[in-house]
Amino acid sequence: MQAIELTDVSKQFKNFSINNLHLRVPTGSIVGLVGENGAGKSTTLHMIMQALKKDSGTIYVLGVNNEADEFLDVKQKVGVVLDEAYFPETLTAKRIQVVLRNVYTAWDDDAFDYYMEQFKLPYNQVFKDFSRGMKMKLQLAVALSHHAELLILDEATSGLDPMVREEILDIINEFTRDERHTVLLSSHIVSDLEKSCDYIAFLHQGRLKFMEEKDGLLERFRLLKIAPEEINDLTINQAAIKGQRVSRYAVELLVDKAALSSSDTVFGDLEKATLEDVMILMTKGVKQL
Ligand SMILES: Nc1ncnc2c1ncn2[C@@H]1O[C@H](COP(=O)(O)OP(=O)(O)OP(=O)(O)O)[C@@H](O)[C@H]1O
């Protein structure tokens, strides 16, 4: 069962496009959307929520086409934190609570009060006087206070201090203890995603490079560090090299273990790669060795 399904989704801006994007977010999972600045993460999340119209393709959210009339009901079950979707500047959290009580049929004052307390947020301060971290926390408190089944979080942890990020990641993990609950989140802070996600979807220049289970991904991709002069002695299937980083003293190769041939003799020297290594080296690509 998929909580979100994008099929052949395309969007054309003047200087950027998303082409035929296929993305599946399995129910009960935490999926991290990673990619460089301008890779198309926010565009994708906005299209899922209909905050931005796609040019073509289909998007299903919790089993409903997001262009169908019933999508309004689905929105009730989705908690959203989009980067700039802030509340009116002059409203206090207390007023926001009153307004949202009438917006969400399943609004839960106890849950909201719980998160206000948990996040140490003030009820009577106007939204414009909140710090960035407080604004993010308030959005998250709202997202978690109407019995959502799906959370869509765009950069919910960026710009926040490590303690608050940890707090937010804990809450996300807690949320997915219920197997019907799903989270799709984007973040620049790849280590946050590495910690909490089940799957990683990597967008690069508007294209999905891969979407894989995190553990399998980190098992499959390895780093081979060698001195530049050792390059010519290397016996390795070129197709197994997925990226490279060259400095004066070392060459780092991102190696896909699954694509190594039996005659390759590099197994002993392969080191574990972090998710950040995989992203950076893949983005750099491979020049002829
Ligand atoms: N309304 C728009 N009109 C024209 N171009 C746009 C519009 N919105 C986004 N873009 C372009 O689309 C590209 C992708 O932007 P997007 O915000 O989706 O990237 P992102 O991966 O979320 O980046 P970041 O990590 O920096 O937030 C960028 O080149 C951006 O300039």
H and E string: EEEHEEHEHHHEHEHEEHEEEEH
Q: What's the number of domains?
A: 2
Helix proportion of residues, in percent? Answer: 25-40%
Count of discrete alpha- or pi-helical segments spanning 4 or more residues: 9
Largest sheet: 6 strands, mixed
Low-pLDDT residue intervals, each spanning 5 or more residues: none
Structural class: alpha/beta
Ends apart, CA distance between termini? 43 Å
- List the quaternary state of the chains: single chain
Question: What name is given to the CATH topology of the largest domain?
Answer: Rossmann fold
CATH top level assignment of the largest domain: Alpha Beta
CATH homologous group name of the largest domain? P-loop containing nucleotide triphosphate hydrolases
> How many β-strands, per DSSP?
14
**Relative strand content:** 25-35%
The CATH architecture term of the largest domain is 3-Layer(aba) Sandwich
The average pLDDT score comes to: 90
| Gross geometry | elongated
Q: What is the C-alpha radius of gyration, as a whole number of Å?
A: 21 Å
